[in-house]
Amino acid sequence: MSSPLRASTLALGLLGTFACGSEGASLPVDTVSSTTANGGAGGVSVASAGGAANAGGFGGMPATGSGGAGGVGGGSGGSMPDVLSHLSLAMRTGSGPNDGTDKNELALCLTSTDCFPLNVADVNDFRVGELDVYHFDDVDLPLAAIDRVELRSQNGTDRYRPACLEIQFDGKPVYCEDGLDVALGSEGGIEVESYLDPLGLHLACVTCYPEPVTHGPLVGAVTPTSARVMVRADATRKLNLRLKKKGAAGQAAIVATELPSPHTDFTAHFDLAGLEAGTAYELSLDVDGVPSTKGTGSFVTPSPAATHPPLRLAFGSCARLWDQPIFDSIAAVTPDLFLFVGDNHYGNTPDVGGLRWNYRRALEVPERAALLATTPTLAVWDDHDYVGNNTLGSSPGKENALRVFKEYWANATYGVAGTPGVFSTYRWGDVELFLLDDRYYRSPESDPKGTMLGSGQTKWLEDALLASTATFKLLVTGSMWSAHGGETWADFPGARTALLDLIRDKAIGGVVLLAGDVHRSELRKLRRKAAGAYDLPEIVSSALANPGGTCPASSEPDAQTVACFDAGDHFATLDFDTKAADPKLTARLRDVKGATLATMVVLRSSLK
Questions:
Q1: How far apart are CA 190 and CA 187, in angstroms?
Q2: Are 421 and 457 in contact (CB under 8 A)?
Q3: Which residue, 119, 124, 127, 123, is CA-closest to 98?
Q4: CA–CA distance, 300 with 302 (Å, rounded to integer)
Q5: C-alpha distance from residue 430 to each of 2, 263, 313, 478 (Å)
Q6: Checking phi first, is residue 488 left (phi over 0); if not, alpha (psi -120 to 50) or beta?
Q7: CATH of domain 1-210
Q8: Maximum distance among all alpha carbons in the chain?
Q9: 602, 534 in Cβ contact below 8 A?
Q10: For the chain, which terminus, N or C, has the lower number of CB atoms within 10 Å?
């Protein structure tokens, strides 16, 4: 992501000991050079809990050997190279009323001149009580040159108090201190312009987070025999995922193991296979052999194809406010599947660090995290969780947005060979979802040959629709299909008409349109007057946590509004009964407490 501010590389001291043990955990000692735990010229080693106290440290400074108090320590993986490639760190701001800062520019220094600026682009970091994460690629710093852990105030105009700092070298934990007592700044008195830890690299704590599993689990794409699960840790640690049938006695079996990488912000994806259809499972995590109290979840696999019981799908978009009680209401209606339909956060940034900050922050909302740990969830994006308001396929940073989207969601697939993006198909029983990417290829509205999807994704969608045998086919996009609201498919009349004509000309039945974006919720019908065409239901679910839209005051020539709600937050549920004599979809718009506001019943016989 970033490179250090570096005047020159000076070997000003020798790194002696990493005291990386942890009381309460039996862990192996990882030796990352040929030197002993007492430290020595030109080498680095990891000492076990309580070992090698005051054994040389940085350039004569003492090192601690006390280790962290309980839990997990040391991290996992093989030997550390002699040259630091990737530096990661997390720092928690103090919880006092004036501990945060808006102005103080901070840096972490590992030598007198190798300093790494701490700033997440487009994010108000260093807020009271919150934790910020920083990654630096291509550091290329010899371990033997590292002689300090120093926090520097670059301008010092606003006092800042750190509460905890943890550092990872190429993913491995090498430093954790939660007993910092310093005020960084330049105004004198209690403030100091720099803080040099006298203990050097040491592990006085396990992590600055409550525990090493920091985010998740997030249950993603689930099939009758498989599931994807995303989890984030604080460092490269051995994550074992355990799984058992709900209610089964005994300890769950380890079914998958991952070592999260700093290059993916320590997110890991577990791909589980060999599951049983129509079965409820409970999952849990071990971290370096120690059970995680946070990393627990559950899911139910779809039933066998022969039965296809009724499916309940919930969806919504636009979660800007950090207070999100609506997710408790979504969980209360027990959907089989949940869809995020864009604007899943409001980062409005092309920066990798800023995008990750927003995904981590979103997964820290308790109600949201609880739903995603227990309900299979899929997602597409719209502009605000892409790279910014009203952004297009030509907008800089879209590759960053796609990279981080893949890190923090667990869809089955993303794009196709030669055509990247967040689009994919997903089937649950007799219902198939066509998750569309409405940003990566979107052209300006002024383009007379404008496109929402681009040629590659359009061809993929046409082929997928023609191949589908599903009773209902849901086209899912962040942008509305009809005109009201701005930034809709109606801005690209040629592309929209071509798609709708394909549905008509190829007699593709069962198509339903889902959308978000406009901060209101609607039940609509897109009118199709041409012979052989049918009216397409359009269900708009917005906002989950961002009210403020306005229902249209007038009708449209090609769309009928059945119901519209613009006060408060909303979500939608879709109940599919595909075993009825005439299969039907019952769409309900619901308020923040889950109460039904409006209902629309769509019979399959009307969609052909």
A1: 8
A2: yes
A3: 127
A4: 7
A5: 47, 38, 13, 23
A6: beta
A7: 2.60.60.20
A8: 86
A9: no
A10: C
Q: 312 is written with which tokens?
A: 């309940």
One-letter identity of residue 552: P
Q: Note the CATH number of domain 311-606.
A: 3.60.21.70
Q: pLDDT (tens digit, 9 = 90+) per residue, 112-127? A: 999 999 999 999 999 9
Strand-strand pairing, 424-428 and 431-435: antiparallel
Contact 296, 250 (CB under 8 A): no
Residue 371 phi, psi (nearest 5): -65, -45
Q: What are phi and psi of 238, to 5 degrees?
A: -75, 110
Q: What is the pLDDT of residue 79?
A: 67
* Whole-number Cα distances in Å, 601 to 471, 566, 587: 15, 21, 6
- For residue 351 the two structure tokens come to 């920066």
Q: Which two tokens stand for residue 29?
A: 């000692």
Within a 13 Å sphere around the CA of 237, how many CA atoms are in the beta-carbon half? Answer: 31
Tokens of 176: 């954790």
CATH top class, domain 226-291+298-303: mainly beta
Q: Which sequence spans correspond to the domains of the chain?
A: 1-210, 226-291+298-303, 311-606
Q: Give the position of tokens 């994010």.
A: 123
Count the residues in the chain: 608
55-59, 155-159, 408-412, 576-580, range with the lowest pLDDT: 55-59
> Is 311-606 in the same CATH topology as 226-291+298-303?
no
Closest CA to 159 of 116, 115, 98, 106: 98
pTM over 0.85: yes
